[in-house]
Design goal:
Pfam families: Bac_luciferase. This protein is an alpha/beta fold and about 350 residues long. Helices cover about 45% and strands about 15% of the residues.
Length: about 350
């Protein structure tokens, strides 16, 4: 089986405040460290009521201090919101404090779904359109590539000098983003949420075919990220997924809300607008089931895509249910034997 990792979006429930969610993220990372997961990445979202993490770079350092082995990184830093020099300096600092354990994942989004928040975040009005330029500047300032002689950023050196930029991953959900990552010699993470997994397979194959090493020894590293819920059995897994799926429908129909308890989410009757929104969503990329079903589905996705690593996004209402899902995923992925009952 391939390596398996976690993306944490800091889920907020009706009973757990955003501040409390950050503590649960730390506990989850410590469990992932113990279970043998490869990475624990933290997402950046703003103004999203059921996601608590807005400053992953701060939480990365906090979690790296409290774990011993697992790689900790951003999944990702939304580059249109940040100056490339500042990102390079933040992650060189993290690398200096935790050498060999930090990852820098960057994305093109702003990490929000509403226009006022997006506009407040963008450091330049054309930040989304100039993502390629800003990525190149980040890599150049961080010492990963040489900028053109006439580029005014060429002479900049990110502090602390002499510390390498940690491994950089481009996060995307298209064949085009896969090609951009390949040309830059970066790692690549495909976000297979509300996407046909066949698109992920095409993108990851294209990434591997097009990869150009930025330095001797560079190799392609393709990650498939998907929503994953592992229950005691298949029915229990579907129940664990219900609060997150309902929260998405609430968001899409103009009523954003935290995650509800499983029983309440299962009992809630959908409105006509929510049923219409649900019918537009492609959930074929979701991995939901007991240990055996999840193991089988992960194997199918890896075989089709050639992914080097699978990264799970598991937003669950109850933190203990979430930790137990993580334990079952470790069994499904072959990280260890089933826990004693």
């Amino acid at each position: 089986m391939v390596a398996v990792s976690i993306v944490d979006q800091g889920p907020v429930s009706a009973e757990i405040t955003p501040a409390q969610s950050l503590g649960h993220s730390t506990a989850l990372a410590q469990l992932a460290d113990e279970l043998g997961y490869t990475r624990f990445w933290l997402a950046e979202h703003h103004g999203v009521r059921n996601m608590a993490i807005a400053a992953p770079e701060i939480l990365i350092g906090h979690i790296a201090d409290r774990t011993s082995r697992i790689r900790v990184g951003s999944g990702g830093v939304m580059l249109p919101n940040h100056a490339p020099l500042h990102v390079a300096e933040q992650f060189r600092t993290l690398e200096a404090l935790h050498p060999g354990r930090i990852d820098l994942g960057v994305g093109r989004s702003t990490g929000t779904g509403d226009d006022p928040t997006r506009d407040a975040l963008l450091r330049t009005p054309d930040g989304l359109e100039r993502f390629g330029d800003h990525l190149r500047h980040l890599l150049g300032i961080g010492g990963r590539c040489q900028l053109p002689a006439d580029d005014p950023h060429r002479a900049l050196v990110a502090s602390p000098a002499g510390v390498p930029l940690p491994p950089v991953f481009l996060l995307g959900s298209s064949v085009g983003s896969a090609e951009l990552a390949a040309r830059a010699g970066l790692g690549y993470g495909f976000f297979c949420v509300y996407q046909d997994p066949a698109v992920a397979a095409r993108a990851l194959r294209r990434y591997r075919e097009s990869f150009v090493p930025a330095a001797p020894g560079d190799r392609p590293l393709g990650i498939l990220a998907a929503r994953v819920w592992v229950g005691e059995d298949d029915e229990h897994a579907e129940a664990l997924a219900a609060p997150e799926r309902l929260a998405v429908l609430d968001h899409l129909t103009g009523n954003p809300s935290p995650l509800e308890p499983v029983e309440r989410a299962l009992a809630r009757r959908l409105t006509d607008a929510q049923r219409a929104a649900r019918d537009t969503l492609d959930v074929r990329g979701d991995v939901v089931g007991g240990v055996d079903r999840v193991a089988s589905r992960l194997g199918e996705l890896v075989a089709a895509s050639g992914a080097d690593e699978v990264m799970a996004i598991s937003n669950i209402h109850d933190p203990e249910d979430r930790r137990n899902s993580l334990r079952r995923l470790a069994v499904a992925a072959g990280l260890g034997p089933a826990p004693a009952r």
